[in-house]
């Protein structure tokens, strides 16, 4: 057995994997081995909190207050001008 230090996001993923292994009636080691053997064919999902969603949206919106509004004459044709 080895001990490693991981960042909080990785620790959250490991906890989710532990819970997944328990729900499947297996060990974390066995679950990880099966994921490696399957080349990660199944996506891993970690529940995300509302606070984390808010933080991500705030990050995306950062600086958008300096973006000029679209002109009132902006149309659908302006968006799709390069399409037939």
Quickly list its features.
84 residues; mainly alpha; 4 helices
Describe the protein's architecture and organization:
With about 80 residues, this protein is mainly α. It has 4 helices and no strands. The model has no long low-confidence stretch (mean pLDDT about 85).
Q: Report the β-strand fraction as a percent range.
A: under 5%
Could you say how many structural domains there are in total?
1
Query: How would you characterize the largest beta sheet?
Result: none
Helix content: 40-55%
Low-confidence stretches: none
Average the pLDDT over all residues and give the rounded result: 85
The number of helices is 4
Distance between the termini: 61 Å
The helix/strand series, from N terminus to C terminus, equals HHHH
Which structural class is indicated by helix and strand composition?
Answer: mainly alpha
**E-strand count:** 0
How is the secondary structure organized here?
Blueprint: H1 8-23, H2 28-37, H3 50-61, H4 76-79
Helix pairs in contact: 1-2
Q: What's this model, at a glance?
A:
By secondary structure, this protein is mainly alpha-helical. The protein has helices at residues 8-23, 28-37, 50-61, 76-79.
